[in-house]
Specification:
Radius of gyration: 24 Å
Structural class: alpha+beta
Shape: extended
Number of helices: 7
Distance between the termini: 47 Å
Strand order of the largest sheet: 1-4
Helix content: 25-40%
Protein backbone atom coordinates (compact mmCIF):
# COMPACT_ATOMS: atom_id res chain seq x y z
CA UNK A 1 0.00 0.00 0.00
CA UNK A 2 1.00 3.61 -0.57
CA UNK A 3 1.51 5.86 2.42
CA UNK A 4 1.02 9.61 2.41
CA UNK A 5 2.75 11.98 4.78
CA UNK A 6 0.43 14.73 6.03
CA UNK A 7 1.83 17.83 7.69
CA UNK A 8 0.62 18.70 11.16
CA UNK A 9 0.02 22.03 12.89
CA UNK A 10 3.67 22.71 13.70
CA UNK A 11 4.80 22.08 10.14
CA UNK A 12 1.99 24.11 8.63
CA UNK A 13 2.90 26.97 10.96
CA UNK A 14 6.45 27.13 9.57
CA UNK A 15 7.44 30.79 9.42
CA UNK A 16 4.52 31.86 11.60
CA UNK A 17 2.87 31.16 14.94
CA UNK A 18 1.32 27.92 16.21
CA UNK A 19 -1.33 28.36 18.94
CA UNK A 20 -2.10 25.30 21.08
CA UNK A 21 -4.98 25.19 23.55
CA UNK A 22 -5.28 22.65 26.40
CA UNK A 23 -1.55 22.04 26.13
CA UNK A 24 -1.52 19.73 29.17
CA UNK A 25 -3.84 17.21 27.48
CA UNK A 26 -1.66 16.36 24.48
CA UNK A 27 -0.23 12.84 24.28
CA UNK A 28 3.30 12.00 25.36
CA UNK A 29 4.46 11.25 21.81
CA UNK A 30 3.06 14.57 20.66
CA UNK A 31 4.90 16.32 23.48
CA UNK A 32 8.14 14.85 22.18
CA UNK A 33 7.40 16.28 18.73
CA UNK A 34 6.61 19.69 20.23
CA UNK A 35 9.83 19.59 22.25
CA UNK A 36 11.87 18.84 19.13
CA UNK A 37 10.11 21.58 17.17
CA UNK A 38 10.78 24.15 19.89
CA UNK A 39 14.39 23.06 20.38
CA UNK A 40 15.60 22.23 16.87
CA UNK A 41 12.90 23.87 14.72
CA UNK A 42 12.25 20.54 12.98
CA UNK A 43 9.82 17.62 13.20
CA UNK A 44 11.24 14.14 12.55
CA UNK A 45 9.09 11.35 11.11
CA UNK A 46 10.05 7.67 10.97
CA UNK A 47 6.94 5.60 10.29
CA UNK A 48 5.83 3.06 7.69
CA UNK A 49 9.13 3.28 5.85
CA UNK A 50 8.95 7.06 5.65
CA UNK A 51 11.97 8.74 7.20
CA UNK A 52 12.21 12.49 6.87
CA UNK A 53 12.69 15.70 8.77
CA UNK A 54 10.30 18.59 8.20
CA UNK A 55 11.05 22.21 8.95
CA UNK A 56 9.03 23.88 11.69
CA UNK A 57 10.48 27.33 12.31
CA UNK A 58 7.59 28.84 14.22
CA UNK A 59 6.73 30.41 17.54
CA UNK A 60 4.55 28.38 19.90
CA UNK A 61 1.89 29.97 22.09
CA UNK A 62 0.31 27.43 24.43
CA UNK A 63 -2.45 27.75 27.02
CA UNK A 64 -3.65 25.34 29.67
CA UNK A 65 -5.31 25.07 33.06
CA UNK A 66 -3.55 24.08 36.22
CA UNK A 67 -3.08 20.38 36.83
CA UNK A 68 -6.17 19.23 38.71
CA UNK A 69 -6.80 16.40 41.09
CA UNK A 70 -8.23 13.36 39.33
CA UNK A 71 -10.82 12.95 42.08
CA UNK A 72 -12.14 16.45 41.45
CA UNK A 73 -14.31 17.43 38.50
CA UNK A 74 -13.76 21.16 38.86
CA UNK A 75 -10.13 21.37 37.88
CA UNK A 76 -7.65 23.18 40.09
CA UNK A 77 -6.54 26.62 41.12
CA UNK A 78 -2.93 27.76 41.15
CA UNK A 79 -1.12 26.55 44.28
CA UNK A 80 1.32 29.28 45.31
CA UNK A 81 3.15 26.90 47.64
CA UNK A 82 4.10 24.61 44.72
CA UNK A 83 6.43 25.19 41.81
CA UNK A 84 5.39 26.03 38.27
CA UNK A 85 6.30 22.49 37.17
CA UNK A 86 3.92 20.98 39.73
CA UNK A 87 1.08 23.38 38.88
CA UNK A 88 1.41 22.89 35.12
CA UNK A 89 2.11 19.16 35.15
CA UNK A 90 4.58 19.62 32.27
CA UNK A 91 8.03 18.03 32.28
CA UNK A 92 10.80 20.54 33.07
CA UNK A 93 12.66 20.05 29.74
CA UNK A 94 9.55 21.01 27.77
CA UNK A 95 8.60 23.83 30.12
CA UNK A 96 12.10 25.31 29.84
CA UNK A 97 11.69 25.72 26.08
CA UNK A 98 9.18 28.53 26.63
CA UNK A 99 10.81 31.95 26.79
CA UNK A 100 7.93 33.43 28.78
CA UNK A 101 5.37 31.86 31.10
CA UNK A 102 2.42 33.99 32.26
CA UNK A 103 0.38 32.78 35.23
CA UNK A 104 -3.17 34.04 35.81
CA UNK A 105 -3.95 33.35 39.46
CA UNK A 106 -6.70 34.64 41.69
CA UNK A 107 -5.78 36.60 44.80
CA UNK A 108 -2.42 37.84 43.56
CA UNK A 109 -0.99 41.30 44.10
CA UNK A 110 -2.88 43.79 41.98
CA UNK A 111 -5.46 41.19 40.92
CA UNK A 112 -9.00 42.35 40.30
CA UNK A 113 -11.56 41.55 42.97
CA UNK A 114 -14.63 39.43 42.27
CA UNK A 115 -16.96 42.48 42.29
CA UNK A 116 -14.64 44.22 39.81
CA UNK A 117 -14.74 41.19 37.51
CA UNK A 118 -18.51 40.95 37.67
CA UNK A 119 -18.93 44.67 37.03
CA UNK A 120 -16.57 44.53 34.05
CA UNK A 121 -18.32 41.52 32.49
CA UNK A 122 -21.79 43.00 32.89
CA UNK A 123 -20.65 46.46 31.78
CA UNK A 124 -18.90 45.21 28.64
CA UNK A 125 -22.25 44.52 26.99
CA UNK A 126 -24.21 47.29 28.68
CA UNK A 127 -23.84 49.76 25.80
CA UNK A 128 -25.94 48.66 22.83
CA UNK A 129 -24.18 48.39 19.50
CA UNK A 130 -27.13 49.84 17.60
CA UNK A 131 -30.75 50.68 18.32
CA UNK A 132 -33.18 47.84 18.26
CA UNK A 133 -35.33 47.37 15.21
CA UNK A 134 -38.70 45.73 15.11
CA UNK A 135 -38.39 42.27 13.57
CA UNK A 136 -40.35 41.50 10.45
CA UNK A 137 -42.01 38.53 12.03
CA UNK A 138 -42.46 37.93 15.74
CA UNK A 139 -44.03 34.83 17.20
CA UNK A 140 -47.28 35.40 19.03
CA UNK A 141 -46.93 35.63 22.80
CA UNK A 142 -48.21 32.46 24.42
CA UNK A 143 -51.21 32.66 26.68
CA UNK A 144 -50.55 32.74 30.44
CA UNK A 145 -50.08 29.25 31.82
CA UNK A 146 -49.39 27.67 28.43
CA UNK A 147 -46.17 25.68 28.17
CA UNK A 148 -43.48 26.71 25.67
CA UNK A 149 -41.29 23.96 24.30
CA UNK A 150 -37.77 25.39 24.18
CA UNK A 151 -36.24 23.08 21.64
CA UNK A 152 -32.66 23.43 20.45
CA UNK A 153 -33.80 25.07 17.23
CA UNK A 154 -36.06 27.55 19.04
CA UNK A 155 -33.25 28.55 21.39
CA UNK A 156 -30.89 29.09 18.43
CA UNK A 157 -33.43 31.29 16.68
CA UNK A 158 -34.07 33.28 19.84
CA UNK A 159 -30.35 33.88 20.45
CA UNK A 160 -29.85 34.93 16.82
CA UNK A 161 -32.79 37.35 17.07
CA UNK A 162 -31.49 38.77 20.38
CA UNK A 163 -28.06 39.38 18.86
CA UNK A 164 -29.53 41.21 15.89
CA UNK A 165 -31.95 43.24 18.00
CA UNK A 166 -30.17 44.62 21.09
CA UNK A 167 -32.05 46.58 23.70
CA UNK A 168 -32.31 50.33 23.21
CA UNK A 169 -31.10 50.87 26.75
CA UNK A 170 -28.63 49.04 28.96
CA UNK A 171 -29.72 46.60 31.66
CA UNK A 172 -31.59 47.99 34.62
CA UNK A 173 -29.40 48.68 37.67
CA UNK A 174 -31.37 46.14 39.72
CA UNK A 175 -30.98 43.44 37.07
CA UNK A 176 -27.27 44.22 36.78
CA UNK A 177 -26.89 43.90 40.54
CA UNK A 178 -28.64 40.51 40.51
CA UNK A 179 -26.35 39.21 37.77
CA UNK A 180 -23.24 40.46 39.55
CA UNK A 181 -24.25 38.86 42.85
CA UNK A 182 -25.08 35.57 41.13
CA UNK A 183 -21.71 35.55 39.34
CA UNK A 184 -19.85 36.24 42.59
CA UNK A 185 -21.76 33.47 44.35
CA UNK A 186 -20.83 30.96 41.64
CA UNK A 187 -17.19 32.03 41.85
CA UNK A 188 -17.22 31.76 45.64
CA UNK A 189 -18.74 28.25 45.51
CA UNK A 190 -16.10 27.18 42.99
CA UNK A 191 -13.21 28.46 45.10
CA UNK A 192 -14.34 27.01 48.42
CA UNK A 193 -13.95 23.51 49.75
CA UNK A 194 -10.72 21.68 48.91
CA UNK A 195 -9.30 24.62 46.96
CA UNK A 196 -10.03 23.09 43.58
CA UNK A 197 -11.81 26.10 42.14
CA UNK A 198 -12.13 26.84 38.47
CA UNK A 199 -15.59 25.44 37.83
CA UNK A 200 -16.78 28.98 36.99
CA UNK A 201 -14.27 31.07 35.10
CA UNK A 202 -14.46 34.64 33.85
CA UNK A 203 -14.61 33.33 30.29
Amino acid sequence: PDFVLEAGALVLADGGVCCIDEFSTIRSQDRAAVHEAMEQQTVSVAKAGLVCRLRSQCSVIAAQNCKGDRSSRRGASYDRSASLVVNSGLPPPLLSRFDLVVVFASGGKGAATEPDKAEFIIGSDAAPKRPAEAPEAVAAEPAPGSGVEWTHEVIREYIAWAQQNPLKEGPAPKAQEVLERYFMRLRADAMTGDGTGGGITVR
